[in-house]
Amino acid sequence: WVIAAYVLTCTITMPVYGKMGDMIGRKGLFIIASVLFLVGSIMCGAASDMAMLVAGRAVAGLGDGGLLVLSQAIVADIVPARKRALYLNIMGIGWAVPMLVGPLLGGVFTDLISWRWAFWINIPLTVFSIAISAVLLPMYRKRESLANFDYWGIAFIAAAVCALTLATSWGGVEYAWNSPVIICLIAAVILFAGLFAVAEAKAKHPIMPLFLLKNRNFMLTTIGGFIILFATMAAMSYLPTYFQIAHGLSATAAGYMEVPMSIAYLIASIISGVLISKSGRYKKLMAVSFAVATVGTVFIATLTADTTVVLAGLYLAIMGFGMGLSFEVLVLIVQNEFPSGMVGVATSATNFFREIGTTLGASVAGGLFTANIASQMADKLAPFGGVAALGFDANSLTPALVRTLPDELQSAVAVAYNDALMPVFLLMVPLTVVAGLLMIALKEKPLADLLRDQGSK
Length: 457
Prior knowledge:
Layout: H1 4-24, H2 27-45, H3 50-78, H4 81-91, H5 93-112, H6 117-120, H7 122-136, H8 151-170, H9 180-202, H10 216-236, H11 239-246, H12 251-256, H13 259-279, H14 283-300, H15 309-326, H16 329-336, H17 343-380, H18 399-402, H19 407-440
Helix pairs in contact: 1-3, 1-8, 1-17, 2-3, 2-7, 3-17, 4-13, 4-16, 5-13, 8-9, 8-17, 10-16, 10-17, 10-19, 13-15, 14-15, 14-19, 16-17, 17-19
C-alpha cells in the first residue's frame, strides 16, 4: 500500500489537473500540486506507523499527478512544438537522474542515517521548486468557470481506478485471480469505465473528451506509451531481486545494475530532442525507438544465471536507449494534434493510460512469475527432495534466505528463479513489436514553429 496509495492518487488526479489547467491556467495549480507533494513528504518522514506512511504517500501522489501533467503542459504553453522535443527530453533527465541517484541515496540514508531522509530530502527541493515557480512561471488569463466542471467524470474514473488498483494489487497475492472478490472488482472496473464514458459524452467540459479517442496519432502514441511502461514495469519490478538470487549480487550491487539503463535513457533523450528539433520529423525515429527497445527486451529474455553482469548491463542499456528515444516525444506528438486550449486534457489523458500501464505491468508480471516459480522450484529441487529441502515456505523466498542455503541448493534456486522469470520477459517482446508497428502507422504532422493561441498576458 505504500506503493499502491501513491499510484492510485497520482493516476486519478492526472485528468483533473489536465482539464483544470486548460480552464483556469496552470501556474497556481502547479504550485498547489507542489505543496501537496511537500505535505505528503513531511507526513511520510514524520510517520509513526504504517497507516500514516501510507496516508502520506497518498497525499504526495495527489501532488505528483499534477506535477507530471502540468510540467509537460507548461512547456507546451511557452515552447513551439518544433523546439519542444528538446525541452521535453531534457525534462526526461528529471526521470533518468533520480533513477540513477535515488536507489543509491536511499541505501545510504537507510544504512547511515534513517530511511526517513528519503522523504526529508524532498522538503528543500520542493520549497525551492515552489519559489522559482512562483517567480518565473507566466500567468495566463482565466478561460472558463469551474461551475460546470466534470465532477461525475471524476467520481466514475476514480472508482474505476480504485477497483483496478485493488484488483491488480490483491490478485494472486491476497486472493486468487478467480476468487469472487477479484471477479467483482474487475466487474466494477468495467461498470465504472462504462459510466465514465456516458458521463464524458454528456459533460459540458469533460475531463477526458471522447473525441480524443478518434484521433489517430493520439491512440497510436498512447497505446505505444502504455506498452513501453507496461514492459518496463514488468522488467524493473523483478530485476533487482533477480540479480541478487540468480547472480548472487548484494542489494547495492543489484541496484547498480540499473545504472547502464538510466545512462542510456538519458543519452537517447538528448539525442532524440536534438534530432527532432532540427528536422521537425518524428515518425521514423519512433519506429527505430521501439525496434531498439524490442531488441533489448529480447536480449534480456536470454539472460541465464551464467550471464556476466557486464553483458546483462549492456542488455539493459539497449532497452533504456530505445525507451529514451521515444518516451517524452510520444507526449509531444499528442500535444501537436490539438489546439493550445486542449493541451492539458490531451497530455493528462495520454499520461493517465501510461500510468495504468505501470500498474498492470507490475501486477501481470507478478502473476505470471508466481505461476512459473512454483513449477520451476519443484522441478529444479526434485533431486534434493523437493521444495521441502529449502526449510522455509517457497512463497517467502528472499535473497537473504537463499544465502543461508547450501551452495548446491543456492545454484538450483538460482536456475529456478531465472527460468521462471525469463518467460515473463519473452512475453513482453510481441508487445513491443506491436508498439513498433503502431509507430509505423503514425501520420506525421508537421511540428508547429510558432505558438498557437496561448491566451497569455
